[in-house]
Amino acid sequence: MKVLILGGAGMVGRNLALRLVADGALGGQPVEELTLFDVVPADVQGSGRTRVVAKTGDISDRATVDALVAERPEVIFHLAAVVSGEAEADFDKGYRINLDGTRHLFEAIRALGDYHPRVVYTSSIAVFGAPFPEAIGDEFLTAPMTSYGTQKMIGELLLNDYSRRGIFDGVGIRLPTIVVRPGKPNKAASGFFSGIIREPLAGMDALLPVDDDVMHWVASPASATGFLLHAATMDTAPLGARRCLTMPGLAITVGEMVAALGEVAGPEAVARIRREPDQTIRGIVAGWPRNFDAARAAEFGFTADASFQDIIRAHIRDTAAAG
Amino acid sequence: MKVLILGGAGMVGRNLALRLVADGALGGQPVEELTLFDVVPADVQGSGRTRVVAKTGDISDRATVDALVAERPEVIFHLAAVVSGEAEADFDKGYRINLDGTRHLFEAIRALGDYHPRVVYTSSIAVFGAPFPEAIGDEFLTAPMTSYGTQKMIGELLLNDYSRRGIFDGVGIRLPTIVVRPGKPNKAASGFFSGIIREPLAGMDALLPVDDDVMHWVASPASATGFLLHAATMDTAPLGARRCLTMPGLAITVGEMVAALGEVAGPEAVARIRREPDQTIRGIVAGWPRNFDAARAAEFGFTADASFQDIIRAHIRDTAAAG
Ligand SMILES: NC(=O)c1ccc[n+]([C@@H]2O[C@H](COP(=O)([O-])OP(=O)(O)OC[C@H]3O[C@@H](n4cnc5c(N)ncnc54)[C@H](O)[C@@H]3O)[C@@H](O)[C@H]2O)c1
Ligand SMILES: NC(=O)c1ccc[n+]([C@@H]2O[C@H](COP(=O)([O-])OP(=O)(O)OC[C@H]3O[C@@H](n4cnc5c(N)ncnc54)[C@H](O)[C@@H]3O)[C@@H](O)[C@H]2O)c1
What we know:
2 copies of one chain form a homodimer. Chain A has helices at 11-23, 62-69, 84-89, 91-112, 147-164, 191-201, 221-233, 254-265, 267-271, 279-286, 295-299, 308-321, and strands spanning 2-6, 25-26, 29-30, 33-38, 51-56, 75-78, 118-124, 169-175, 177-178, 206-208, 215-219, 244-246, 250-253, 273-275. The first copy, chain A, is globular. In chain A, α5 (147-164) links the parallel β7 (118-124) and β8. Chain A has 12 helices and 14 strands. A 7-stranded parallel β-sheet of chain A has the order 5-4-1-6-7-8-12, with helices on both faces. Chain A is of the alpha/beta class. The A-B interface holds A 91, 110, 129, 133, 138-145, 147, 150, 153-154, 157-158, 160-161, 164-165, 241-242, 287 and B 91, 110, 129, 133, 138-145, 147, 150, 153-154, 157-158, 160-161, 164-165, 241-242, 287. The structure holds nicotinamide-adenine-dinucleotide (2 copies). One nicotinamide-adenine-dinucleotide is lined by residues 6-7, 9-13, 38-40, 58-60, 79-83, 97, 101, 122, 124, 175, 177-178, 186 of chain B.
């Protein structure tokens, strides 16, 4: 089969690509060709079984998307997006890529008429906005408080409608904040959740812009890959009209994260964290969800991490493996 | 002040225009100019106080919308839409008018930069989809089951985001099904709710395609006008980030509607109703909301009809007045 990842050079896309090449298969079917599309070139190597094709371009150009879709991949992972901080800072860019780009993909598929792939779309818990109940259930309203959340939610609505009409077979997964994000920080306002673990483990200082009692919903990069694979292969019939699911995660406070870091890596690591309250980030984070009851995702077989300590240990292993 | 109604020749728009001309004012301020924009020419007469300008065009043409917005009306009522049945039958037309047209309006306002009007947007209870709780509260998820509902919900999300950013001052009102709709039936799948009252009162037969126990959420044309005027003049600060409200209405079954018709107009009227089950309409209606707890709208001062008998009597008066 052919698989296409839009945003294939990004953090989540790259991990997914590595896993697909390692498995050489998806849902029991061999993956002969894996196309990684992104504005920047992806650096994943193929294998004897799986040919990897890296392509560059912009999903906000309809013709580019038409050309990708013309290859009729059986599964499309749509991860290409401008993240929260950037979509908030650049109104036009956020709408052009996150909304128009998503529509281009959906319309390109519709234009073919007889092509109905599985489409896995990465939404975000940013589709929710305060005030919240103690734990956000699957029937709680989506009321985004950022342009990014708005764009992600519009993508969800379109995915549901196009799927309902049989244009494609969509699954939307609302990712928790992925922690520990490897590599360099990106422009997401949630970056510090990873920074306070990643930087100290690398012997560097990290800034903590919010209070210790800030609670958030997180999952590891490996869990994100697991969600995507499951979304690509699950039976979608029982989802009915509601094809977008809040993914499982851990509800954890910043204080608990720091304590877990101390447990796994010792007090020297914790000492690397510098508390520098930032009113802007505090304000943004105050509107973010803290805790979920992701019952539907659990019912449909999605699973996440057992503990934050495990997440930290996995990050240490991954970093060592990456050299 | 200047007021603009997009969809000003439609049922709700025309009633609103008549009321604005009769009042000659909105929120205590004189309305000097009222522009009625629609694909078909509006036929509302102005008064000495209020000049009425009827313009024709299509909101899916950006330049047309730019020209309307260049007049900088203080209040814009955005009612222009392709209704549910048509948006379901014609995918492209629904998205072009209901989604792209709405975006054109919002973007035309943003393009001016220093112009921040009140924008009142008519959403619909079609943003909700089954399964439902006994009564749908203000925190229940929106999960549309039609393309029309999807497009209306996307408009809500955009309205919230543009308002949050201070581009305009938006209020979205989710109208119940407006009953009794005067004049000819339109292409809305909900048309029969009005037909079973309007046709018998006019001495004509009416088809009833669903069962008597179908419950629905309705409000009168006069209530719709009242909602719009209130949305145009209310203080929006207490709405916070959630600027779209389910309007109050009556939860009533088809059987109760028919009984009310009998009470007001006698058994001859009821005898005009012919039960002809239609599987397609039944299927559509099965996914529609039945009952709401519209507490937030009530809290913000929106009020609706006291009884269905009153709604029928108002329709009889309006029809007589219209000759
Ligand atoms: N990482 C998280 O915590 C998180 C949480 C919720 C949702 N998500 C979503 O998951 C997806 C992947 O996240 P990530 O962490 O890998 O983000 P990322 O920023 O690392 O990857 C996104 C990729 O999309 C690419 N991209 C941006 N604009 C593009 C365009 N116009 N055309 C083609 N490619 C474009 C970027 O170059 C980048 O490589 C995104 O859609 C993101 O919004 C991520
Ligand atoms: N009547 C109801 O029961 C009800 C319920 C919920 C929501 N709404 C919404 O309220 C609004 C008004 O409803 P209505 O009952 O008056 O509908 P309507 O169909 O009578 O009026 C809509 C008007 O919009 C005009 N229009 C359509 N496409 C246009 C375009 N491209 N450019 C300019 N004008 C265009 C139509 O010509 C029509 O006159 C609509 O947005 C509708 O979706 C109505």
